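Thread: Protein spinster homolog 1, structure

OP (GT): Posting the sequence first so everyone is looking at the same thing. Length is 504 residues per the record. Can we get the structure tokens written out before standup tomorrow? I want them in the notebook alongside the other entries.
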Amino acid sequence: MSLGEPTSDSTPFFSDDSEAEEQGGGAAGQRPQEEPASGVSHVRALLTVFILFFINLLNYMDRFTVAGVLTDIENYFGIDDGKSGLLQTVFICSYMFLAPVFGYLGDRYNRKLIMSVGITFWSAVTLASSYTPKEHFWALLLTRGLVGVGEASYSTIAPTIIADLYVKGKRTNMLSVFYFAIPVGSGLGYIVGSQVGRVTQDWHWALRVTPGLGVIAVLLLIFVVKEPKRGAIEARPEHHLHQTSWLADLRALSTNHSFVLSTLGFTAVAFVTGSLALWAPTFLFRAAVFTGEKEPCVEGNCASSESLLFGIITCVTGILGVASGVQVSRQLRKKTARADPLVCAAGLLLSAPFLYLAIVFAQTSTIATYVFIFLGETFLSMNWAVVADILLYVVVPTRRSTAEALQIVISHLLGDAGSPYMIGVVSDSLRKTDSFLWQFRSLQLSLLLCSFVAVVGGGFFLATALFIEKDRHRAENYVPTDDEPIVVPKSGRSTRVPVSSVLI
């Protein structure tokens, strides 16, 4: 299927995968088992989820490999904290601004092809960034920005494919598998980056790991994954979905209180994780120097042990956090329909004090610091899969890629696009001298901002709980109206049919 060939969205409705299996099984003796409504077999759907997980793992490995060797990069280029923060900021900015473009394309064209092109592009650019010469820091900034272009094509679209393969409890389970890749991939980025840099004694080699794995990912995507039919597993036969204009989609999303408030809550998550992702290993190294546990390092591989430990903690806490978030949400749903936003709020509000204690105790106890980081990151990770599930069930299928893109733009624009750079600038402004004492102290004070932002984000999720039931009911019972502006096929062929049956 070509990029310009729209996919059909009209298929029978099954309220659950198990229901589909029962219907097919009941007639097994009379006719062949019916194809799932999504058009993808159950085995291939499961393989698709694990392939998307693998690609998402590479996605986050690639993002945080730079953080694992940040001290080496600072020494190599001779840059300060502000310029170091720009490495993450330029990546997030390009990723953020391109997300709406891919969201628009993902709601209308072949998602598998879009992702294949994007992954190929980001792998090639990542490889190119590993050859940046010492005199051209701007070239590293440019290539990191271009990596964001490729990753936007994947992160915006992949969750919507899972949404078109599964519904209800199975969707939540599969999304949790997909979002395990965020903390695990991030942790592996620190580990691979620091250890490859240590073994080769050259941080450039740390950026040459994910491109090779990216080639494997593209081949799996092309030959194993099958494009599911949009919304087919949810759409009732009498309620055919049609594409509305992009502006109509934006208007509808702007009036969806649960979407808007959960996006603002997720923005706080992005702010905190973005700040910690880039600065935590460097902060831990400076703390070790401050307490006398390590000697100052001005060249060579400086922060490998801190990056390794933080990477391991990120992997473990991510698995625990995502799994516990999903399980607590599932149990709480039996008592209240507001379970998901309440779990997200609890995760952020509980993470705030532990992150604060981790930052404060860094100057007195290394063990306490790592314990508090472990607890803070565990609670913070409870949000990932649950927030994604909220978006998917409060937004109709034909607007989900656009909603994913809009959430990416807002959460990154106000969250981790600026937070690494902001933390670096604040650290530079607070530093009274260039001594190792003030290198640690200034970064410590600037990172305290994360705890405050986490509390604000928890408040947004509590507000989401007030609207979640109404917005979910509206999305599940959505019926297109004749006054909605629709997207007219490019052929311009005139057909006398009801507006609600026009598909793109």
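GT: Both are above now. Quick notes for whoever picks this up: The two ends are 15 Å apart (CA to CA). The longest helix spans residues 257-290.
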